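Risk register update: the risk that structure generation would not scale has been downgraded. Supporting records follow, first protein first.
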Amino acid sequence: MSRQHDQLERLTFFSDAVFAIAMTLLVVEVRLPHLAAESDRALGQALLDLIPNYIAFLVSFLVLARFWAGHHSLMGQLAVSSARLLRANVSLLLAVAFMPFPTAVISQHGELRVGIGFYAGWLLLLGVLNRRAVRVVADDPGLLAEDADPVAIREHLARSWIPIVIAIAAVALGMIAPLAGIVALVVGSPFVTPIIRRVARLGPRN
């Protein structure tokens, strides 16, 4: 059991590192502006022109932070890992590590439908892979610690729908109007989260 617990710790530490690196790399797209002429006005305008980059950074940082918080909480419910969980986790981390690139795309091309679609599509993939990892844990009680909370696992399953629903909404709205897709990404969570939680409470066990 000690060896299995060590493997779980290594998996958790590695996952935390990937999340941390990906979240840090997001700021790379907020580049220092180059000025044709040094002046307060030119610098102020250049900083204002970076507003799309600020928004993309903030949205992506909060998205990854939320995924990390859920992942951290889920790992806290486990006593051991498994080959299936390892594969699911690596797939999730692949999507996490790539997140700075969709962020760069939406930073530069957020006014285009393809830009919104690409970003929201990657968020959808990230959500699906995250749900797959949670599903692996829910389907294998042997992974859980003795004091694991079954209710918490069901809540993880319910919450795993949130980024999926937001991403689908962003893709659909973004194809109509790119700005609508961005709005869905920015403010979707406060609307979707209570709905998902209510459905989870009223519906059958996931």
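Supporting record for the second protein:
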Amino acid sequence: MKLDLGCGQNKQLDYTGLDRFLLPGVDVVCDINEGLPFASSSATRMMASHCLEHVEDLISTMEELYRVCQHKAILCILAPYAHTSLNMANPYHKFHFNEHTPRFFTNSNNTLVHAEEYAFPYITQWGLGETENNKLDMDFRCIRMEFFYFPCYMRLSISEQRRLRQSQINVADQIMYHLVAVKEPISPSELKKLARSELDVPAFVHLRRAHEGS
């Protein structure tokens, strides 16, 4: 089973579309703030494009997604990047996403994210899921992270993009993660193999890449 959460009228091909409104293409009407009507460990893929920034409790929602995921299921999240003036001002966004966000979805320090992406003084480990003394009921490992930039920054080197993105606003406007649900022991080589595999992305990403390549 493959689930497209908050799909609206743009359901991902070959996915089951969920939304809280009965729109064309929606297969299941539900509010993800109240949980998902699916059995545990029943989904192999999940897509969450521009929806998780609107949930009431991000950690509780992520734990519910983890419950429904099978071991090694892949969750793709696309969200507005936190550090833009528009996103900061948007009163409909309850949560903001940047390169640190997936650190709170796991306690494991086993990540494929380059250390320079999440460098932060005095907090060098990746997994921060229980830093607030809460019990974390999920283990999502980030295997891929991608940023989408404003036009004037698209052609810069990765290191220059990173430097500007981490020090200024209005440099990147979207961020995408691919997370693996880990429910059994998994080796670093297995995670690397998953990261190298063909991963589904939202239709928005295909359009954005085509536009940026033109």
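The chain is about 20% helix and 25% strand. On this basis the risk owner (M.S.) recommends closing the item.
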